[in-house]
Design goal:
By secondary structure, this protein is of the alpha/beta class. The chain has helices at 41-48, 52-55, 117-123, 126-137, 153-164, 176-184, 216-221, 247-252, 267-282, 299-307; strands at residues 2-6, 15-19, 29-38, 66-74, 86-90, 100-104, 109-110, 144-148, 168-173, 189-192, 207-212, 226-234, 256-258, 290-294, 314-317. The strands form three sheets. Strands 3, 4, 5, 6, 7, 14 and 15 form a seven-stranded mixed beta sheet that branches. A six-stranded parallel beta sheet has the order 10-9-8-11-12-13. A two-stranded antiparallel ribbon has the order 1-2. Helix 4 crosses helix 9 (267-282). It is globular, with a radius of gyration of 20 Å.
């Protein structure tokens, strides 16, 4: 079978399409014929060698932690009725950038009726994240909500969830294409954070809830737009580090700050929240913003588009 393999740490060019033996399911495992594999920004950081010891990854390896597709074979002890069913699954050990992947039976989630595999794949990482952040923030009708970045995987879902709850939503993104996409998701206002003084252009926003998933200095600057007593969820670090919010300011202003710990799921909790996200999508209450669908032999291009922030939404690999 074909896979997109990271051959060594480095830039996107280190991802090569190679042939590996077809996986054979062991006890408690199934083989999923992949229809769509999710890609996430942290996979580009791991590929670059960033924090290699923390991740415990050594090249060559096949990235990809979430897929959707059809169960092609089952191992010993697995319910044979899974064969032929369309499912979504976390792979846990990577390997999703492939035509076929091994998955533990316990990770399988049958797709709700009418939900496309590509939609499911785009929700497997960001759906649980967005739903958990949203629930913990206790967004209510009439709240002012800032989402940064609003055109990303989780951010685009947070815009939809907050708007559906009756909040006034301001979406921050970079560039006209992304701002137009955020408007299309239902945001009441948009702001371009490209410039260093971007927060000054928001018109005195005092957000009751801030979802900040960019990290670094940009993420820290979002605190200026939070009302005293606001809930601030600081959950992402695509800039290379989490936002360093001033503890003294947080305490003085009564801001309720939470971080990445909110979305450090146990396997059981992740499965529960993933199932909920799939149900929400099947009911039409949320939809992932899918920017592009690329074949395996363009996985390097997928990583480049994430690193350069060129894609407006999710990038999927479709073997």
């Amino acid at each position: 079978m074909r896979v997109a393999q990271v051959t060594r740490f480095g830039g996107p060019e280190v991802i090569e399409t190679v042939e590996l033996p077809d996986p054979v399911p062991g006890p408690g495992e199934v083989v999923v014929e992949v229809a769509a594999a999710d890609t996430i920004f942290v996979e580009t950081q791991v590929r670059s060698g960033w924090a290699a010891e923390m991740w415990g990854v050594t090249p060559p390896y096949v990235p990809g932690g979430a897929v959707a597709g059809v169960v092609a074979a089952t191992g010993e002890g697995v319910d044979p009725s899974w064969t032929g069913r369309t499912v979504a699954a976390a792979t846990r050990q990577g390997g999703g950038y492939a035509e076929r992947v091994l998955v533990p039976e316990g990770e399988l989630l049958p797709l709700p009726s009418g939900l496309a595999p590509e939609t499911a794949a785009a929700l497997l990482h960001d759906g649980p994240t967005a739903l958990t952040l949203f629930t913990n923030a206790q967004v209510r009708a009439g709240h002012s909500v800032l989402v940064l970045p609003a055109a990303g995987g989780a951010g685009s879902l947070l815009v939809q969830l907050a708007k559906a709850a009756g909040a006034h939503v301001t979406g921050a993104a970079r560039g006209k294409r992304k701002l137009d996409a955020v408007r299309g998701l239902g945001a009441d206002a948009v702001v371009d954070y490209s410039g260093p003084e971007w927060a000054d252009g928001v018109g005195g926003l005092a957000a009751d809830v801030v979802f900040e998933g960019v990290g670094g200095e940009l993420g820290a600057s979002a605190l200026r737009l939070a009302a005293d007593g606001a809930r601030v969820a600081s959950y992402g670090a695509p800039s290379g580090g989490f936002a360093a919010h001033d503890p003294a300011e947080v305490e003085r202003r009564g801001i309720r700050l939470s971080g990445i710990e909110q979305v450090q799921f146990t396997p059981e909790r992740h499965r529960e929240m993933t199932a909920r996200a799939l149900d929400e999508a099947a009911a039409g209450r949320i939809r992932p913003l899918i920017a592009q669908r690329l074949p395996l032999n363009r996985a390097a291009e997928a990583h480049t588009s994430m690193e350069t922030r060129a894609a407006v939404g999710k990038t999927l690999l479709v073997p």
